[in-house]
Amino acid sequence: MGLSGISLLTTTYSLILQHQSLLLCLRAKGFGLDLKKDMEGVDYLSDERKKAQFDVEAMKIAWAGSLEAFQLSDRMAKLVANDPAFEKFTRPMLGRKELIKNTLRKAAHGWKLIVDLRLTEEEAKWLRLYIDEPAYTDLHWGMFIPAIEGQGTEEQKKKWLPLAKKMQIIGCYAQTELGHGSNVQGLETTATFDPQTDEFIMHSPTLTSSKWWPGGLGKASTHAVVYARLIVGGEFHGVHGFIVQLRSLDDHSPLPGVTVGDIGMKFGNGAYNTMDNGVLRFDHVRIPRDQMLMRVSQVTREGKIMQSDVPRQLIYGTMVYVRQTIVADASKALSRAVCIATRYSAIRRQFGSRNGGPETQVIDYKTQQSRLFPLLASAYAFRFVGEWLKWLYTDVKERLAANDFSTLPEAHACTAGLKSLTTSFTADGIEECRKLCGGHGYLVSSGLPELFAVYIPACTYEGDNVVLLLQVARFLVKTVSELGYKKPVGTTAYMGRVASLMQNNCAVQTAEGWLNPGAVVEAFESRAARMAVRCGQQLAKYENPEEGFAELSADLVEASIAHCQLIVVSKFIEKLQQDIPGKGVKQTLEVLCYVYALFLLHKHQGDFLATGYLTPKQASLANDQLRTLYSKVRPNAITLVDSFNYTDHYLGSILGRYDGNVYPKLYEAAWKDPLNDSDVVDGFYEYVQPILKQKLRTAKL
Ligand SMILES: CCCCCCCCCCCCCCCCCCCCCCCCCC(=O)SCCNC(=O)CCNC(=O)[C@H](O)C(C)(C)COP(=O)(O)OP(=O)(O)OC[C@H]1O[C@@H](n2cnc3c(N)ncnc32)[C@H](O)[C@@H]1OP(=O)(O)O
Ligand SMILES: Cc1cc2nc3c(=O)[nH]c(=O)nc-3n(C[C@H](O)[C@H](O)[C@H](O)COP(=O)(O)OP(=O)(O)OC[C@H]3O[C@@H](n4cnc5c(N)ncnc54)[C@H](O)[C@@H]3O)c2cc1C
């Protein structure tokens, strides 16, 4: 192909895409061909954007929740993207010390913006999201402050919150130990009351009692809420939170009796290594009595334990709050990966060229669609269930403030279950997006490896996902066992119709029949109710319920998943019953809602068939409908990911660039790698040349 042919090609975007790689070869060293001029400023996805069947601006608002939420988030995204202090592309190449220093610098700059621009709490949260770097400030604002707010008395809040909110102290949440994380009652750190001095003595009696994992503890925190066994008069009175100062407020050195440091490198480059997860030991460290968080239980000057009306479980309240935020974050992480994979799938072409015409965009392969579109639909589903969960949490918080604890068990079950469901799916979904991007997805510049490495601990922190599903199972089993005399409410209200849900079978006769919210919800309710009741029946066979629970735990986990999927499906459907303005917006969301539900039905059809609710024919009809739905998603795919309104800075991905200008930018990025600073690699003369020059007679391999 001659140069005249090249100039002809540059006039047609789709053909340029076909030949970008060839053109770039010519541009490589020696050819001196500069295509930059032709490539920049061109929207390679414009044809895709023209296919949209809905109003993208209105969808952005539907995704954000309201016009105000959209404007606020958009303002913060641009603030971060336009500030060079928040550059993040070199992050995976930094050594640990440099990395942490860089994070401390960004946190200081972020805090300065918050103060100088007088940002609200909501704005600060968006700012943090778009800075996209885990830091000690997450635990200070996300756990230390909420722990004091939820478990402190009015006096304690008055004393500590102003200091914390002005960041005159920095706190972390020190619960997990080397020996115990899930089993909070098994923690070994002790807080022994000394009536002589009116103090608690904080002590780490064993190696396994060392605090291990708390974020921000390693290097940044001056204080911690430490969870420890309360010992008064030689007796153990359960685990409680204590505010403990760890480091000097003058020179940041550890206080006497405190041993504190970082636990070391974690999975991936950059990623969560920006966080100083720490280790902490106490050697008989004394703190004043009023530093035990005393909303739940109080220790008097005389060493008496007083219980307030507040249930003990409130000690776990901070975890309920954070689990709720983690569900909201799942939709952000998944949508980000999906945005990258969708845009790249429209740019990438493989096979199918006839008579020299363009090859097929990989997004047009049905297999690509059946892997990608359920993830896209799930991102929307998680967004809406996250919105609902935020509402539920706000309601519970208001009730707790008024000493109404009635909805706490349901809030615990919902936050635990949805945290588990959404983070497990998102972690797998990010990895699927990497595979959807083929080889280039494995490059750090695709943004996916770091996103995956940062995200996956969400399946473990704030409660291991299996442990949390077992909590949901306990709640379900209790609900089933009480059915005879207690009307289930909230997310278990469907159990109140258990008799009909056990008897009625699915009435769907055609593929179109599945496009009915009532039919979909009933299918998920019947499956969840039947699985929970079946577990209940099995459990009844055991004399010792705990033994039965342990024996049946794998089935119980599956019943919990069924219940949580029902919540997500029904909250999506409820969302669609609201007024959602904008041409085609509601209709497009309806398509996604059915994709989400029927994809789950297809994936878990074993459950639906085994519980006897569906026939194989009906399951097959659901799959037929799913294929039709994918065709409806296809023209809207690019604009559905545009509706997330993510900046290129936030996406941090060459494959996911808004303009689709992938190949030139990948090519450019490769040449910026420090390894390409010289033609001859460091170490060549020491280690490679001697091998090349050696004169072996034989090699025995
Ligand atoms: C550069 C940037 C610049 C920025 C600049 C700007 C700066 C400024 C920015 C400003 C903004 C920044 C904002 C940032 C935000 C960030 C967000 C945070 C990020 C978070 C990161 C995450 C970190 C991760 C943190 C962590 O990882 S922290 C550790 C978490 N650890 C766990 O999660 C342990 C799991 N284990 C258990 O949760 C329990 O242990 C166990 C299993 C329940 C058994 O517990 P056990 O006591 O044995 O209980 P049972 O006997 O089973 O139950 C007994 C009874 O209690 C019940 N019940 C159990 N629970 C609970 C519960 N909650 N609630 C209620 N009830 C409960 C149960 O239903 C039963 O009721 P009943 O049936 O009796 O009625
Ligand atoms: C990146 C990161 C940040 C963290 N930040 C903090 C922090 O700021 N503060 C803090 O206090 N902690 C923090 N943690 C700790 C975290 O909360 C715990 O690791 C988590 O709760 C899991 O507990 P574990 O490590 O004890 O897991 P384990 O309970 O030891 O889990 C190991 C395996 O055992 C299984 N298992 C455990 N119990 C049961 C059971 N009853 N039934 C069936 N299976 C079971 C689990 O499913 C898992 O497969 C962090 C952890 C990570 C990875």
TrEMBL record:
- Compartment list: Peroxisome
One GO biological-process annotation of the entry reads: fatty acid beta-oxidation using acyl-CoA oxidase
Q: Per the UniProt entry, what species is this protein from, by scientific name?
A: Mikania micrantha (bitter vine)
Q: Which family does it belong to?
A: Belongs to the acyl-CoA oxidase family.
Specify which residues bind FAD according to the UniProt entry for this protein. 176, 215
Where does the record place the Acyl-coenzyme A oxidase N-terminal domain? 55-170
InterPro entries associated with the record: ACOX_C_alpha1, Acyl-CoA_ox_N, Acyl-CoA_Oxase/DH_mid-dom_sf, Acyl-CoA_oxidase, Acyl-CoA_oxidase_C, AcylCo_DH-like_C, AcylCoA_DH/ox_N_sf, AcylCoA_DH/oxidase_NM_dom_sf
Q: Which GO terms describe its cellular component?
A: peroxisome
Keyword annotations for this protein? FAD, Fatty acid metabolism, Flavoprotein, Lipid metabolism, Oxidoreductase, Peroxisome
Keyword set includes Coiled coil: no
Q: What is the lineage of its organism?
A: Eukaryota, Viridiplantae, Streptophyta, Embryophyta, Tracheophyta
Where the record annotates domain Acyl-CoA oxidase C-terminal, the positions are 517-693
- Report what the protein is called: Acyl-coenzyme A oxidase
According to its UniProt record, which cofactors does this protein need? FAD
Q: Which residues form the Acyl-CoA oxidase C-alpha1 domain?
A: 316-477
